[in-house]
Amino acid sequence: MPAPPMVEIRTAMMIQWWRRMTFLHWRYPADTVSPLLPAGLTPDTDDGQVWVGMLPFLMDEVRPPWLPGLPWLSTFPETNLRTYVRGPDGRAGIFFFSLDAARLPVVATARAGLNLPYRWSRMSLRVNGDVTEYRGSRFAEPRGAGYRLLVRSGEEFPEAELGPVDHFLTTQSRLYTLRYGRLVAVDVWHPPWPLHRAEVLDLRQDLTAAAGLPAPKGAPLVHSSPGVRTRIGLPEFVRMF
């Protein structure tokens, strides 16, 4: 399960800042996650286990590379639920079970353009010193799938303390989705995350249940980061070998 090399993005579709990021990760049996993946993707496993991540953050300065950002539309909370996969050619990447966002135009555009599973949600992100509170609740689902997370961020990890798992979970540079029934890949570039220690003070969520997953077992592996600037590449259809 080595960390994949970061792909250079020469022609960007979007520029984004991902700020106030919290990474929560749990291990699941691969045979629990595999039925939820589209044909062509397999879980990226380690001893029969696969990681599932919940990542709340602030999406900021979202814009095409040739246009300025718009104050309201370009800044909003987002939370994604994802897992780690291998494509038909063996390349590592991410598959999203869901992406919650607080801007309906963004949700509609992402669903129409890339068929990403965005959900329109009532969301908030509040910072009080070293503590960040994330909240979300979906508008259009009967039970309002959502979450509340309270996390305290600490000092930055020394590079010597970061191991292969830390790098693997934070350096994925390709996402997969289905478009018109075909597998599509989009490459993403960003500098290395400045990773900080973090402590979960409170967590209540049913995003995993809404995705068809059992409740995670045990405490999550936690990282936090002030953020990175990203370049999102153009989509390309994936050959099915």
Which fold does the CATH topology refer to?
A: Acetoacetate decarboxylase-like
Q: Number of domains in the coordinates? A: 1
Low-confidence spans: pLDDT under 50, at least 5 residues? none
Strand order of the largest sheet: 1-3-4-5-9-10-12
The number of strands is: 13
Percent of residues in helices: 10-25%
The CATH homologous superfamily corresponds to Acetoacetate decarboxylase-like
Q: Please give the radius of gyration in angstroms.
A: 17 Å
Into which percentage range does the β-strand content fall? over 45%
CATH class bucket: Mainly Beta
Give the structural class: mainly beta
Based on CA inertia axes, which overall geometry fits?
A: globular
Largest sheet: 7 strands, mixed, barrel
The H-and-E topology, N to C, reads as EHEEEEHEEEHEEEHEE
| CA distance, first residue to last residue | 21 Å
Number of helices: 4
> What CATH architecture do you see?
Beta Barrel
Mean pLDDT rating: 92
Quick summary:
The chain is mainly beta and 241 residues long. The chain has four helices and 13 strands. The protein has one domain: Acetoacetate decarboxylase-like (Beta Barrel).
Account of the protein in words:
- The protein has 241 residues and is mainly β.
- It has a single domain, classed as Beta Barrel (Acetoacetate decarboxylase-like), CATH 2.40.400.10.
- The protein contains 4 helices and 13 strands.
- The protein has a 7-stranded mixed barrel.
- The model has no long low-confidence stretch (mean pLDDT 92).
- Pfam families: DUF2071.
